[in-house]
Design goal:
Elements lengths: L22 H32 L5 H24 L10 H11 L2 H13 L5 E8 L4 E8 L10 E7 L6 H4 L3 H8 L5 H11 L6
Antiparallel strand pairs: 1-2, 1-3
Helix pairs in contact: 1-2, 3-7
Length: 204
């Protein structure tokens, strides 16, 4: 069976996000950490296929957990690379700006909420701006690991990686400095385009 998931190419050179994010971190993060999640997701898919073929589901709980963990890691990292840009920073425009103003109290209020939510992650996780198709609104989420503490069906739009491998080589244990730096990289054009594609989604 062919692999279900592949590691996406970076949309820029390793050093393109400096000084806010070092080339060393980008290379290790993409080529090692993200690649490991892709490998893990494919391994879980293959394991589940083998279990179905043999009608042997003794390891089903572990396989399902592995798929959720690695696939979620792959999805969020794939967003992360596009959510950052050498030309990032500033504020969103257009329909995304209007939605943030209407639903999250304006850009500064939203920025403060996502900053605090990200800094408040206990252990490993992400701060995420997501579209909630149930309420038809933007929400901010704290994602623990890659997949827990999520609103069901919420679609991530902007993903801020708070795992130590995302910042430690440059920012050491001062993760708040990494969050501050991230706002200089935020690619609002990408987030706005993603918002335009999902804002009509409804699941209930």
């Amino acid at each position: 069976m062919p692999n279900q998931y592949t590691l996406p190419d970076l949309p820029y050179d390793y050093a393109a996000l400096e000084p806010h994010l070092s080339a060393q971190i980008v290379e290790l993060h993409h080529d090692k950490h993200h690649a490991a999640y892709v490998t893990g997701a494919n391994g879980a898919i293959d394991g589940l296929a083998a279990a179905r073929e043999k009608n042997d589901f003794a390891t089903i709980n572990q396989l399902e957990k592995n798929l959720a963990f690695h696939l979620s890691g792959h999805v969020l990292h794939s967003l992360l690379w596009k959510n950052m840009s050498p030309d990032g920073g500033g504020e969103p425009e257009g329909e995304l700006k209007a939605a943030i103003d209407d639903q999250l109290g304006g850009f500064e209020a939203f920025k403060n909420q996502l900053t605090q939510a990200s800094n408040g992650i206990q252990g490993s996780g992400w701060g995420v701006l997501a579209w909630d198709p149930t309420g038809g609104r933007l929400i901010v989420e704290q994602v623990y690991d890659h997949q827990s503490n999520l609103g069901q069906a919420a679609v991530p739009l902007l993903a801020l990686d708070m795992w130590e491998h995302a910042f430690y080589l440059q920012y050491k244990n001062v993760k708040a400095d990494w969050v501050t730096a991230f706002w200089n990289l935020a690619n609002w054009a990408d987030v706005g385009e993603r918002f335009g594609r999902v804002s009509s989604l409804s699941v209930v």
